[in-house]
Amino acid sequence: MSKLSIITRGLVKENPTFVLVLGMCPTLATTTSAMNGLEMGLATMFVLILSNIVISLIAPVVPDKVHIPVYIVVIATFVTVLQLLMQAYVPQVYATLGLFIPLIVVNCIVLGRAEAFAGKNGALDSALDGIGIGVGFTLSLTLIGMVREVLGSGSLFGWKFLAGDGILAFVMAPGAFLVLGYLLVLFNKLAKK
Amino acid sequence: MAAKSNLINMAACLTGVCLVCSAILGGVFSMTKEPIEEASRKALLEALSVVLPARGEVNPEARSVELDGRTYEYYEQTLDTAAVCWAVKSTVGGFGGPLTLLVGVEKGGVVHATRVLSHSETPGLGAKCETDAAFIDQFKGFDTATKSLKVRKDGGDVDAITASTITSRAYAEAVACAVRAAAKIQEEAR
Given an 8 Å threshold on Cβ–Cβ distance, is A63 in contact with B10? Predict the structure, then answer.
């Protein structure tokens, strides 16, 4: 498999949100605005790339029966590092994403990639896979966030183009399911062609 | 790919990984400890500067007062060594979860200003208690001696946010609690 296709695969063919349908908890909960979606995507990508690299390096020496706990410890370490760094340098972002940062530990995309890819491939390929899946996840979350923000708040990336409120349901949980559902259909229809 | 498992290499591997990871975490923790404290101190000072009048000195050391079985944290502002104003942290149950306010209360029970520290109200409805200027500004200079800290629906003088009576009620209640706590602080100081 060429290096380029490892990256592009994560964008369309194996898009984590719209094709693999993984990591739905942060996807539904944090995409109330485009900016929140983007930030959550980037946070997940940070963990994904680093854990993929480290796991691909240690996988050959990790005994088979304990590989899941070892992977989780590695992932949890990177998440905690990210959490501390965000608290220290971008407290505003940390305040909005809050609980969903520690929850990256149990995000099935991260452990899924460790199991399905990083554990069986080299460090470079695993890093590229992390970038591909990470960018795919970030773009998907930003897209959902954009749709929800436009419909729900009448703004885009915080820029308000509509006075007053939008359709509030789209900022709340039901809107998250609706937008995700329709985007899922649209994405798969377009991707099939 | 993976090595064959036996008790010794499993234990060794887990111990090794955990040791390395905790070392990394310890390093990052001590590295970010100061910036994190700095950031939370800055956020606190910013909130204090909003709810307290711009005069005298604020003691950034939190103190606490007990009232009706609850503990309130507060910060004292002094002018020429006499305490003149208190910023009281007050938490009540809102519509979506706890609603925490910082309320500046002047001597005699006049509210100087309020600020939301954290909330989990509905976006677009109750969450407006953080941004709706008309709602927030009505608490500035609110004199509890002549007006009542209840929403108009309950016979008070607080204009509720449209379609968010429960949040508005909680907000007014939090301010009222802070005022009562401030009264207790003054009583104790006497």
Answer: yes
Tell me which residue range forms the domain holding A107: 3-146
Rounded to a whole number of angstroms, the distance from the CA of A6 to the nearest CA of chain B is 21
Is A27 inside any structural domain?
Answer: yes
Domain for residue A102, yes or no?
Answer: yes
- Domain count within chain A: 1
pLDDT at A89 over 70: yes
In a domain, residue A114? The reply is yes
A117 close to A51: Cβ distance less than 8 angstroms: no
Q: How confident is the model at residue B86 (pLDDT cuts 50, 70, 90)?
A: confident
Asked whether residue A161 is assigned to any structural domain, the reply reads: no
pTM value surpassing 0.90: no
- DSSP reduced 3-state for A85: helix
Q: Which residue is associated with the tokens 């204090």?
A: B48
Encoding tokens for residue A8? 């592009």
Please list every residue in chain A whose beta carbon sits closer than 8 Å to the beta carbon of residue B122.
168, 172
